[in-house]
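Archive entry. Fields below.
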Amino acid sequence: MILLLFGMETEVKQVEEIELQIKNVCKNFMIDKKKREIIKNIDINVKKGEFVSIVGSSGCGKSTLLRIIAGLETVSSGQVLLEGTEVAGTSPRCKMAFQEARLLPWWSVEKNISFGIGRKVDEEEKDKLVAQYINLVGLNGFEKALPRQLSGGMQQRVSIARALISDPKLLLLDEPFGALDALTKINMQKEVLKIWESEKKTMILVTHDIEEAVYLSDRVIVLSERPGEIKNIINIDIGRPRKRGSHDFSYFTNLIYKEFFTEVEREVEYSI
Amino acid sequence: MMEEHQIDIKREMIHFLEIIAIPLIICILWQVSTTKGWIKASVLPAPAGVWDSAVSLNEKGLFWLDIGSSLSRILKGFLLGGTIGIIAGSLIGIFPFFDRITKVFVAVFRPIPIISLIPIFILWLGIGEESKIAVITIGTFWATLINTMDGIKSIDRKLVEMAQILGKNKWETIRYIIFPYAFPAIYTGIRIAITASIGYVITAEMIAASAGVGYRIMYARNMAQPGIMFVGIIEIGLFGLLVDLLVLKLQEKLFSYR
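PREDICTED_STRUCTURE:
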């Protein structure tokens, strides 16, 4: 009997734990009194500690999907389960960073980050936490700076630190580097990768930058044009850190590019 | 280094001269035109004459009495009207329910010029302090109400969403995001209210009062003492200037994050 129990336990451990289940999710919006399908029949399982990217052309509903996971939008049909419980409204287990840093301009870096602490903590612990996360995102020396004194990349670091300081299980990234210049973007991707590796968080990134998705993700989910449906899921089987110029890297970026090119070609055909 | 410093001082002096040039020219013209007899003293007394009037008012103990009465009315009316205005404006801005039930009231009563209410206040409240304070209360109420309301309604939805993601409740969102966000607009409302209440108090005092700067100007007109009239006018101008300077200094301090 005891042996059997042991056996079961090890078996459970071997099965990879599922953090997030998206089951047949559809979302419709009413636009001009007409029902418009935004996303359709989305089925995704995200494993604990996995880095998943969702790519798609603009308007394909990828941000809407992320907002549904965050609890900012409701589903029209289907289910989203976070650690087995259905998502209903925002949850402390899941935090999000947006394309704009959304910092409070009247607060210093420190205060903005400490705003993310979800529970009651005493001053001493708060200071320790804030220092820890300022260190994590490499903003040492900028504790007292105001948002307007920071560059776009630094503002995003604050935003990410604020999301992480409450120690969520799942971090959602809604095109957080979309507004940054190319060099800052590459640096920020490295930073996020470093954080992902050290903090062991599950992360879901929405982006329209295919290289970014290949550089960061375990899996890339390609959505079709509206209504967004899963077109393909591509496992990026390259070890990290990945080199952008490498053969494998281009192989995967090309693979994903093709998903879009075929769609564009088809559209041209239709319009003729 | 030294030279740069001197250039800075020089530049600042030039700026100062630029700022005071027009007032200075007006004063010179005033002095010259009155002493040369181009303008009759009964129309525009000489600067020295106005000064004498101020001194005589002070000797009778009226100078500070007038300023004190007008200021105390502004202060009382502003505290009352401003407080109600900011509270009501916040409620309307935050809760759509209050917005709906006050919509018609605001639309109908706000365009009424406050001056037109003075006779009604005198009828209801008499010619004592109450009627004058009421005028300022109403005036400051509208200025603060509208600005608070608009400031809160213009909140960046993205910041509210951010608070929602961070698990902040409604009260925390109001306290840490909505109010700080609306604060510059509320401050603008306060500034407009104070400036406007100078006008309201003078007008109200001209109609019915026994002391105050507005009363003194009207009294001097009746007594044909133009010197005293100009004392009043200059007092109002200087008070306005003082308020402006204070408000701007405070603004720099409060909103240095922008």
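CURATOR_NOTE: Residues 113 and 162 of chain A are 4 Å apart (CA to CA).
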